[in-house]
Amino acid sequence: MKGRVKLSITLPASPDVIYKAWLSSKEHTAFTGEETKSSSKKGGTYTAGGGYMWGKNLELEPGKKIVQSWRSTDFPKDAENSQIEILLEKSGKGTKLTLIHSSIPKGQTDIYKQGWKDFYFTPMKKYFKNK
After folding, report:
1. How far are the Cα atoms of 24, 63, 121, 122 from residue 118, in angstroms, in the given order?
2. What end-to-end distance do the CA atoms of the chain give, in Å?
3. What is the pLDDT of residues 88-119, one digit of tens each?
4. For residue 93, with 0-12 CB atoms within 10 Å meaning exposed, 13-18 middle and 19 or more buried, which class applies?
5. CA distance 113 to 104
6. How far apart are CA 38 and CA 47, in angstroms?
7. Residue 123, SS3?
8. pTM score, two decimals?
9. Alpha helices in the chain (DSSP H)
10. Could you tell me the residue range of the domain that residue 45 belongs to?
11. I want to staple 8 with a disulfide (CB 3.0 to 4.6 A). Which of 93, 98, 118, 131 is the partner?
């Protein structure tokens, strides 16, 4: 059975700022500390984590939602792509970001759940504090 992760964090920046940063090669690299090449167009591709993960932009709603296909070097060769959905909602002076990662290969769910916290949520909190 494929795994699914759903995590939320409130960040001290507007939905538009976070949306643009996620799709910007320069800012995504800055908030994760790992090289990212990204496109802000539907159908555009990205690589992140220094080439550890990659995929394609499937659905883009500026300031609200990003849906991307996603896979990593840890996926079995015959595994289908997983999918991430980033939902952005105004929350007080900041934004509630909800990340839903679905169709994760069997046995890898816990690794990615911790990875999103360690390599995205923790550094994003620091990065957006100054935005």
Report:
1. 20, 24, 6, 6
2. 40
3. 999 999 999 999 999 999 999 999 999 999 99
4. exposed
5. 10
6. 7
7. helix
8. 0.96
9. 15-22, 25-32, 109-116, 122-129
10. 3-129
11. 98
